[in-house]
Lysosomal dipeptide transporter MFSD1 (Sinomonas flava), 437 residues
Amino acid sequence: MNSWRAWTVWGIGVFAYLVAVVQRTSFGVVGLEATERFSAGGTLLSAFTVVQLVVYASLQIPVGLLVDRFGTRIMVSVGATFMALGQLQIAVAESVVTGIIGRMLVGMGDAMTFVSVLRLVPVWFEGRKAPLLSQLTGMIGQVGQLVSVIPFLALMHATGWTQAFLSLAALSVLVIVVVLALLRNAPPGVSAPREGPTEGTREVLAAAWRQPGTRLGLWSHFTVQFSGNVFALAWGFPFMVAGQGYDASTAAGLMSFFVAVALVAGPPMGRFVARHPLRRSTLVLAITGLTAVAWTAVLLLPGGAPVWLMAILVAVLALGGPCSMIGFDFARTFNPSHRLGTATGIVNSGGFVAALLTMFLIGYLLDVQHALGLSPGGLYSLEAFRVALAVQLLVMAGGTLALLGVRRKVRRDLAAQNVHVPPLREVWAQFRSGRRR
Ligand SMILES: N[C@@H](Cc1c[nH]cn1)C(=O)NCC(=O)O
């Protein structure tokens, strides 16, 4: 099945996802221009991102159900249509309300893309290739952030707001044309989504949720990805500049380092997952543990964190994105193909719900400390950030407990099918005796 046709279909899907990431991140890189255009301060501007993320996260499960029913081709082209309309709206918007409506449309279209594109992998490629190809899908999509930061920003400076956003709308129109012309849901002779068993929406959703493997994916995605999202999308920049006192160019350099590490880490993680499918959750727990340790060090160090320590934190946070792809691998391996979109949607809501919840809690804790006079250094002082950002450790702990609980259930079910996951100490002992021999 791994013909040139499969690679073409996958390549188009990945292109559509990359463009969705450009649309998603484009507004964030033109903060200064947006402040001027909408006469809005930081809080109001952050509403653009929050609203977009809320729309994205709340649509994941409906989109999953729809992609199982209508297939990738329709969903990705409808998504690109919403994103084109959203960017068109932003291109001409001059008030906060009209701008936010544009970002909502972009969030809707973006929500329809990733889950739909990921569905192509197991349909067009043999199972053994799926972990690496899923990782590559996620990884190549992240290049969209660089497209926003470099060519889009340059275009904005050269041609101005309206032209730059019209160009982004045109990019999504290109996606619609290419997808409708060349993307097919399944190879000839393989049943497309609509041809699967005809379960009702409620049954599909209930069956995907009842499957403990789906919930293992959800909690993996929830636990390992959110801290990186919170850092990259909301609080990383203010923490480094206002809290730690770094200059803006150092903070921007660390943000680019974040994207670079996320790009490099994808393929080795994909290979690990393909080789050690019984150790997927262990990798999630290991990266979550590293994240907790790195945050603890940065938050506890008296007098602020040196740049090298912040770089270690950023590298660890960047691993969370690729590692969260393990969540989708759980969805794929524990669900039948006709329920895959729904299960993937459930998993993908995890990290984004956790990120939104944590972003809100951090903002709330900063405000409360300020209002109670507990942060004499100012709203964004290092001391205030130490307390507020520590809330992430609680969210991580909650996610880890939920993950461990559902993993026990998954392992019981596997044992009933005669698949036993040997304890790590046994694997380690075997490895050592093998080496001695
Ligand atoms: N885990 C991310 C994607 C990713 C892959 N490598 C780094 N990040 C994810 O959940 N993506 C969903 C989306 O819509 O982008």
User: Anything to note?
Assistant: The chain has one domain: 4-185+200-436. DSSP finds 18 helices and no strands in the chain. The longest helix spans residues 382-416.
